[in-house]
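Give me the fold.
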Amino acid sequence: MRILFKVYIYIFDKRMDKKTIDRIFLLHGLGKVESVSEIEIGFTNKVYSINDKFILKVCEDVENESRFEKEVFFYRFFADKIPVPKIRVFDNSKKIYNKHFIIYPRIVGDNVYSKWHLLSNIQRKEVMRQFCEIFKTITSSQYKKFLKRFKLSATFSWHDKVVQRIKHSLEAIERKQLFSSDFLDTIKRFLEANHHVLNEQKICLVYWDAHFDNILIRNNQIVGILDFERTELASIDFTLDIIKRMVDYPKKYMSEKTEKYAKNEDYSKLLEWFQEFYPDPFAFKDIYKRLDLYALAHDLDDVLLWPNSEEIKQMIAKTVRGSGASF
């Protein structure tokens, strides 16, 4: 399932070799490199475990460098607030290696997906309570430093941002003739009938890649939050987009290794628990219609990446008019 929904943009013939890693660790006083293993996570970056003590993350795609630097910013920004990696090295000079990279001590824990099937509902609910406390910290944080660092403005229409994203994808899909004209018209009518629900907004920092592969737990306690590249200013309810997707499609962000443990019923209460512990993102009129529009925007983007995927098209059909649509 996972390959279907993520873009692999690695340059497969380029990997940081041990000799280069030795030089980096020597330069920064991190000790002798005894072992290097590539971790099968990360989609826009290479991720290595060094000596089973450090994580080395390399931005192999030049187009992702701005997001990579955003992740570095947020790891430092939230260092004393939530359990993010503690960066020991950030090098964007391209002198030792011609890519940006970071090094941080490995957080000892397992991603939530790998343990969720072993937890009782009481334990799962407690993990979600911790999860929501972390979200509260993120969404309530001041973001002036973030705006200044990345030369951004906090004055924008959330409605326009989402609607333009959808329209841009629809235009590309129409040019490439990926959908039938009937299905395109159905999507456009759905957008026209519902876009107004996005006029309400509450702008804040939103960490919108918070699926369970990016959350580490140990003894049922959250000990690590990873991958802040996709953190940005958005309306607070956009926080719920990824949560709803985990409810609707539990296998979507799982590794193949953990997919076999996935049961829909194990994820069915995520939104319910989220609302109990953090009601603020739900405080919008037509909240579930807003979430439909976020899902539509996401899935239309995915169609452009995987134009032959009937599964993604069925997801869009489910959003705009129920299942069983023709494309």
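DSSP finds 14 helices and ten strands in the chain.
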